[in-house]
Design goal:
Elements: E1 12-16, H1 22-37, H2 44-57, E2 62-69, E3 72-84, E4 93-103, H3 112-126, E5 132-134, H4 141-146
Parallel strand pairs: 4-5
Antiparallel strand pairs: 1-2, 2-3, 3-4
Helix pairs in contact: 1-2
Amino acid sequence: MNLRQDEAADDIACRPAQSHELAAVAELRWRWVQELYGTPDTTLDEFVPRFVAWARETESSHRCMVMVRDEVVIGIAWLAITQRVPHPRALKRMSGDVQCTYVVPDERDRGLGGELIEAVLAWARDLGLERVTVHSSDRAVSAYCRHGFEASPRLLQTEVGQGRAG
């Protein structure tokens, strides 16, 4: 890890989230939205149980990686897994999308986001995914590029929803 020399690398762990950590993950997601867009319409107390229920319901398709220091969750990254249409040469195909990568403000600019990205990519390789995409914030584009992501002229998108939730 790219930590300051006065910090021990072994006091930070990056691993799949455990069920009891989902409330902390929900709180970080809420804080992230608050940081970017102002106070959310849903209170933290309303959001946490709904988020935890969602995370449990979707655990087969959405997996969370956490970064913890002394058992405190300081960063998160999600890997959304999608089955792809079978191909005559590959009947079982899957791809992934990195979502909601977040490191608490006090821990930023030390390479921890890059550690989360690497952990998610290792997870994707272990799962046999064909490719992994990400829709990044402007601030994080360079971090993703440092870890092998590059722009693709064939990956296009259009917004079809009524509003942008962030």
